[in-house]
Amino acid sequence: MPELPEVETIARTLRTEWQDTPAIVGLAVTGALVYWEKTVAEPDWQLFKDRIVGQRILEIGRRAKYLVFTLDRDTLLIHLRMSGDLIVGPSGVRLADHVRLSLELDEKWQLAFNNPRKFGRVWLVEDPNSFFAKIGPEPFDATLTTEKFWQRLQRHQRQIKPLLLDQSFIAGLGNIYTDESLYRSEIHPQSLANRISLQQAGNLLDNIRKVLDEGIQRNGASIDWVYRGGDFQNYFSVYRQTGKPCAACGTAIERIVVGQRGTHICPHCQVVI
User: Fold this and answer.
1) What is the pLDDT of residues 195-245, one digit of tens each?
2) Do 123 and 222 sit in the same domain of this protein?
3) What amino acid positions are annotated as catalytic residues?
4) Same domain, 151 and 65
């Protein structure tokens, strides 16, 4: 599933003129085709079509793992989940094999939501703040200080990795960037969150930001989902590096299971707290 850097990269791409396709900010939705009704989570797919047509795309951003399209009256939210992808191309052309929804833009272009495994969803909402009310703070939020992050950790007697994956605790992290951040911080993913010291919390928050920023700079990671174009996978320290030597100590990287998720660690550098 695309994580924060991949979603940020997609948002940036859609805001930018690319090869033979335009930046779609400023274009108006002149038509909407829904090929698989369950793609639209909110509202009813027919109402979705009626409401979105005529609205102009004012801004494209990201919140957590959601793409956020600010329109004239509403906000369009898209979660790509396991296999979703957004493609811009000429109107009236089949852009991919599994397009579940297509928005015609200025009667010339289209934004196609290709979604082979049908897990991705779209929402058209009036109040995005209400929609995101239960999502935790963004990792780069300047108000998320070391002290506040540590205080949030102290409230939980949960293993640190599942907590970091919980979008209500902090937004945008997934398996890749959590493993990489914990490795750099020398924190075992099974360590209890409330046992992490203030100093360790500051180091972890700093490394989360560094890993995410590096992922964004490298256009994310391209592994086994539809999203392609990034090369952060060539710079992983532990994720999917099972059997390779740790760069710090030479110990072989191990794969374990934490919270039902495949997890990669250096058993020497990362000790349970």
Assistant:
1) 999 999 999 999 999 999 999 999 999 876 555 678 999 999 999 999 999
2) no
3) 2-3, 65, 261
4) no
